[in-house]
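Field: sequence (string)
Field: structure_tokens (string)

Example rows 1 and 2, in order.
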Amino acid sequence: MRDLDWNSFDVLVVDDEQDNLDAFRFAFRKSFKLHYALGGAEALGLLDRLDPAVIVADQRMPGMSGIEFLKQAKERRPDTAGVLLTAYADVTVLIDAVNSGAVDRYVQKPWNSKELAVVLRQVISGFATLRENRRLREQLALYAGYLEREQRDPIDFGEIAGESAAMREVTARIGEVAKASTHVLIEGEEGAEKEVVARAIHVGSPREEQPFVKVTCAAFRGDALERELFGWRRGAFDGAFSERAGRLDLAHRGTIYLDEPAPLTPSLQARLLRVLADGEVERLGSTETTRVDVRVVLSLTPGIEEAWAHAGVLPELVSRLSVFPIRLPPLRERREDIRALAEHFLRKYARRNARAATSLSEEAIAKLAAYVWPGNTRELENVVERAAILSRGDVILPEHLAFTARPQPPEPPARAPRATPAPEADTTGIRAPAAPAAPRPKLDLSSQLDDIERRELLAALERCGGNKAEVARQFGMQRTTLYYRLKRLGIDT
């Protein structure tokens, strides 16, 4: 018989006589997790919040017989095994009950505790097998879904293409870390295609043929993220009627990509630290530890690490998650890549739609290069796709480009220096020393870009009447990212 923890499975005992319930309690209280009900009506009420592995019911009860009760119970809990206790051996009735599926086993009264214990273990084992098979089918279906999405939407590594020095450095770091099993931290703004970098690391690694499991952490609130990552045992919390594998189990031997994991509960921090340090996973509600071999790739937007520090995230956890950081530069810092990216996106949509434009005019590229790109590469892709649809010819023109924010206006031409009077003729024969040249102003590209972004955000806030949620939606960023940028740029709203 399977090596199961019998006390982890609920057993509901139903009888209309308290003495019989007490006898059952005395015989089996140390062997099984028992619940009791006086009669069928009370037991049916318990089934609204209880998911028993087995129900033991007496046949002769007033108002509702054991067989009638088990039929109704099976409608609510079809996986639950039904054991009927009877002193009246009406064979025809029992056979009909078994054939109907209401009764799985029947035991003659008076029962023998050892024999009944064997029966209970047998039906509990069957219940556990049924639930395990279902869990495995669901896990396989979930994994098949990942594979189907991979085939249907193959990753487009052209989205991190670029000849700028910044992107060449990113590409080099991807190549450096891919062959190792080191955990990776990817930092970049919204729309900077952090997931593409994570997948590039996975594809370039020995784990390429194993699962790549993405977890959009913002989709889970409270303890839900912990449950999703680690899975649970049956009965671990209200509604946990069956066991479920976590995403870490699904990513075994592969890569798990955690997109923006904030905030982190203390319990989740401790569990993640155990995974990173020892590769150990323990499902919620379980004391059984399993080992997983998984690389963790984490993505953050600027400012989250600071928020982690304020939230008291364990320093050791931060240290282990940021062993190998990769910073993705925003598009406004690598404008020399805009042409190549725009042409890449245009080819991508031209393949999908034969009527789409196939090239961009130089004026259109100049307009793209003048834009601040708060939504980064993802926004560029959206702009190019929209322009490819709006263009009636083969070439995208400036008028086909529509932006969320305003393009950056060209810098005003430099004024000519004011003429200075010619010096009077020198009659002494001695040349006067030349006046020292005025120092050339130092260009501060970072502050100029900040000024551009500040203007665009202020304009967007004015257009949206100060509605930050709408501004974040228009720029394709999360509100936390918007708040961080407003604070960094000194915009008081």
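Row 2 begins here:
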Amino acid sequence: MQFGERPRSYAKRRGFTLSELMIVVAMIGVLAAIAMVGYRRYIRGAAASEVKAVVSGIRVAEEAYRAETFQYLGCTKSFTPWYPATPNDKKRNWDNGQTGNALHDCWMQLNVTTDGPVRFGYAVVAGIAPSEGVANVPFCQNWATAHATVNGPWFVVQAAGDQDADNEFSLFASSSLTGELCVDPKNGDDE
């Protein structure tokens, strides 16, 4: 055996060195961090798709209500309180079971249905223009201009969510006059 050579028994039992192990752990850490960013983006995107589905359901329910009564149903006079509850990081059942509560009863009369519990809170304001001007949504570009010439029934729906429980809401809005869903650029769907 020459100097610097290991006996054959050591060569067969050779494992990972500490530096090799540290490199593998670091690579796993980087991959986990990338996966977490992607997962959070996926979850928040799913929450935004909830808003699109529920706002579409509200639109259908409002149009059905208007077909019967010639006006839209507003459940609040402003964009609060939220239904089924003030937004936080928890899901809530759409029918919050508060029979006898005016807000609950209004939403039940509107007959909006969801596939399951929701993360966002919703508010719908309605009126008849020009005597009742369309509710303003300041974070939507050109909102006031687009809704200035309304003459007849209207509704505006707003959704708010707080997925990370920091009391900064993601806000979305739409109206009977446009099929667009505008997003608050301050927080949007990626708070």
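free_text_note (row 2): Residues 18-69 form the longest helix (52 residues).
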